[in-house]
Amino acid sequence: MAGNDDAQLGVGMVGYSFMGAAHSQAWRTAPRFFDLPLTPRMRVLGGRNPEALAAAARKLGWESTETRWQALVSRDDVDLVDVCTPGDTHAEIAIAALEAGKHVLCEKPLANTVAEAETMVAAAEAAAQRGQVAMVGFTYRRVPAIQLARQLVADGRIGTVRHVRAQYLQDWIADEDTPLSWRLDKSKAGSGSLGDIGAHVIDLAQFITGERITSVSGLLETFVTERPVATEFAGLSGQGGTERGPVTVDDAAVFLARMSGGGIGTFEATRFAYGRKNAIRLEINGSKGSVAFDFEDMNVLHFFDAADDPAIAGFRRIVVTEPQHAYVAHWWPAGHGLGYEHAFTHQVVDLVEGIAAGTHPAPTFADGLAVQRVLDAVERSAASGAWVEP
Ligand code: SOE
């Protein structure tokens, strides 16, 4: 590792809002709960506002700061660049980092367009020849209950997949007076609910089933077309002034899908489901049973085995906190549970282990491109009214 003790991995992160805070927690925590082959060293935090950047670096635990990401990706003490910026800068930062010889972790969705995602995959494939690793941050794959769902499907416990029912329900902009943010600006975010949260359930459906979405028929809607311009913003919400501006992305997306294994899917992503805060709901129905998950009860997986005696059959409520469940043995005793932030730590663990072993932990940039193609197909279908293949 250039510029570092061989047992260390110098990390530079660009961006320090909600995702930057979650990633910082993971870089700090992973070596304290997992025996890592390389110890992450939080070398440098990148951002544009010097005062806010310095405060964030102190709060989140970064050793130094850079106000230009171009300088950050070129530093000898940085071995990995973590891209936590809005989607319109993912491609330029990730490609520059790969071309500078760094490993890359890039937040989801991979990019704002298929064309950008394709250039990122090409850069990652070239970098892989030099021993570099590139990963995209679909962290919900690393929730233990999701890992168990995938294992049950892979083991044939639900048989052939017939239905994929996937929802991502939030309500943080259901209030029409919630101010604008970059997530509501197409030039920054690429799309709205579709790319921001729909991307997660697309990736999860493909991850759990091991299948691909082969065609879609989609519908996008923007319920509130203009909002107050934010005077201050943090995380997902903020304060608006009297000035107003346009919403240029979808507020909600719904689409039908055909799966590569012959099943069919219904997908929904919305920020207008009042009362649902971060409800990622997946139910996979197969020829021998079903699995069902809701992130708002994230330590539980529901499993129905059609072979059970009908007199006592029913969904089993599996509390996924046993030491034999993925990642759990490193945390707390059975029944104590994990939270949103733990999946980010698991992401760091698998990434660092992959770098040390010279392997390429999923989701790779190619997996990110597969999601991007589905997002693009849904947008084209919504525009044309026709079924579209990703
Ligand atoms: C906002 O919808 C958001 O922060 C997403 O951008 C994240 O990917 C998701 O994990 C939580 O909600």
From TrEMBL:
Highest taxon of the lineage: Bacteria
UniProt keywords, alphabetically: NAD, Oxidoreductase
MF term (GO), any: nucleotide binding
Report the InterPro entries cross-referenced here: Gfo/Idh/MocA-like_OxRdtase_N, Gfo/Idh/MocA_oxidrdct_glycsds, GFO_IDH_MocA-like_dom, NAD(P)-bd_dom_sf
* Residue ranges of domain GFO/IDH/MocA-like oxidoreductase in the record: 147-291
| Keyword Cytoplasm set for record | no
Q: Which positions fall inside the Gfo/Idh/MocA-like oxidoreductase N-terminal domain? A: 10-133
Q: By its UniProt entry, which PANTHER family does this protein fall under?
A: BCDNA.GH03377
Name used for this protein in its record: Gfo/Idh/MocA family oxidoreductase
- From which source organism is this entry? Cellulosimicrobium composti
